Amino acid sequence: MTELQHQNNSQAYMVAVSGTVINLCLGVLYAWSVFSKELQDQLGMTATETSLPYSVAIALFAFFMVPAGIMLDRLGPRLLLLLSGFLIGIGFVIAGLTLNVVGLVIGFGIVAGAAMGFGYAAPTPVAAKWFKPHLRGTITGIVVSGYGLAAVYVSPLADYLIQGFGVANAFYYLGAFFTILIVIASMFMKSPPKDGSQLVGNLLNRR
Predict the structure, then answer these.
(1) For residues 108 and 118, what is the distance between their CA atoms, to the nearest angstrom?
(2) Using CA atoms, how far apart are residues 125 and 157, in angstroms rounded to an integer?
(3) Dist CA 80 CA 121 (whole Å)
(4) Which of 109, 138, 159, 200 has the fewest CB atoms within 10 Å, i.e. is most exposed?
(5) Is the distance from CB of 167 to CB of 35 less than 8 angstroms?
(6) CA distances from 117 to 34, 78, 81, 92, 109 (A)
(7) Which residues cross the membrane (predicted)?
(8) Residues 173, 89, 19, 2: is their CA dihedral positive or negative?
(9) pLDDT tens-place values along the chain, 207 residues long
């Protein structure tokens, strides 16, 4: 393997790792059950009221993946992911500042929901493009698994922050944490050259 090919492979795997990290952040939806319980216990909200921000977030998550896909083709992944990172931080700050139904719907439901849609649309297709067809399924599975694996740590982390620092601060800390990680990971996200000369797996196909 030449030095150039080694650099290309390193770039490809860095994109895949960064995409997985971003999806681990976007799995913040799994934390809502913890917030919902505390909002009911501490602030007296009803189950219906606490389910509304989550429902709005799910709807906006799905809705914004469509324009996000268009933006990805036109603007590339980095700008899209920066937008996602900053929006999720802003959304969590709004949620923490208000701690009422309207504020939670706007902050977590609309702003953070849009952030999830923008962010989720980019990592998997971009990472897959760096690999030859016989490797794309594997890479896609790895990157997408980050979203599911978020359930392993997001809920316990949210519970720890709530119990230790309060509901409002838990929103602030999680928002800052996710913004920082997504922004850093976005710096490593780029599409491969269109000629396919740098795709991982070229050597395998020549054997």
Answers:
(1) 14
(2) 29
(3) 9
(4) 138
(5) yes
(6) 22, 15, 10, 15, 12
(7) 12-32, 52-72, 79-98, 104-123, 135-158, 170-189
(8) negative
(9) 455 555 667 888 899 999 999 999 999 888 899 999 999 998 899 999 999 999 999 999 999 999 999 999 898 899 999 999 999 999 999 999 999 999 999 999 999 999 999 999 999 999 998 888 888 899 999 999 999 899 899 999 999 999 999 999 999 999 999 999 999 999 999 888 776 555 666 544 443
Q: Which domains, ranges and CATH numbers included, belong to the chain?
A: 9-188 (1.20.1250.20)
pTM, full prediction: 0.87
Return the number of other C-beta atoms located less than 10 Å from residue 143's C-beta: 24
Closest by Cα among 55, 70, 150 to 110: 55
Question: DSSP letter string over 130-169?
Answer: TB-HHHHHHHHHHHHHHHHHHHHHHHHHHHHHHHHH-HHH
